[in-house]
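User: Hey, my collaborator sent me this sequence without any context and asked if I could get a structure. I don't really work with proteins. Can you help?
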Amino acid sequence: MTGFILDDDQRALVEALSRVTARSSSARGLYIHGPAGRGKSWVANTFFEALPTTRKTRVHFHEFLDSLHRSIHDRRIRREGDEQNAVAHALDDITGRSRVLFFDEFHVHDSGDARLLTRLLDHVFRQDLTVIMTSNYAPDDLLPDPIWHHLFEPGIALIKANAETFALDGPIDYRALAHDHSSGFASGSWTTSAVLPEAREATSVQVHDREFPVLAARADELWISFAQLCEIPTSTIEYLEWARSFARWVITDVPAFADADAQAQQRFINVVDVLVDADVPTTFVSPLDLDAFLAGTSERPDAFRMASRLQLLRR
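Assistant: No problem. I've predicted the 3D structure and written it out in structure-token form, which is a compact way to encode the shape of the chain:
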């Protein structure tokens, strides 16, 4: 991590990562949690990249679920075993011959996801992989909805039984400090004005057998309105595909967060997750400046992570 100055807690995290990956403790994993912007993903990802092995796999929450569902679907089409075997083989497809699995942004809000993530945890710990996880939630706070929380209690038990827990706390959100805006997501901007594409550029983009209207789909740039992106049934399947297909995004007509319904809010949070993880330069166009937009985001679960990430942008 040459060229960067770690704070005391981050240095302690590096020591914990070293201990766990060297198997000098009884734990087979490290579960890192703490507030948004503390550097959990950055420290863990930098450490992971430096590990002297090729037998390692990094997955992001949305990417993992997309890959898992695709693999399960493919095995069903090929009629390879029953449902239980399809999931087990799909997990093998993702982890492969890896001995280290880094799962970034581990969170659980959906009962269906809870079952799949529990299967993942059981699978990787049975395979004796070293597992690194980052999250904004302490283990006991995963799947916080009291109606569904019991569904992930087996997953929480697996984390506690097999992984050390490291709380990367502290008052500093490093994303709110000065940034290098020369590349990636941080080279994008939040602006209150933009020259929009002409109406003749309006088109649609296809993902599998569905078509989605967009303002423009240029060779390397996607122009799409908030309504087109978040107010119709879209999912991370589409966001991941578009992040792979377009080197730059422009999202227009972003309203006040509170003016969007709950589903549109969650889709926007997911979009920001995907774009940051894929490091796609993105311009957000809104009648509100960024501070005014962020002032209305505090009530939605996971919006704190989105708010932190949007502060990477140029104003």
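In plain terms: Residues 61-77 form the longest helix (17 residues). You can pass these tokens on to your collaborator as they are.
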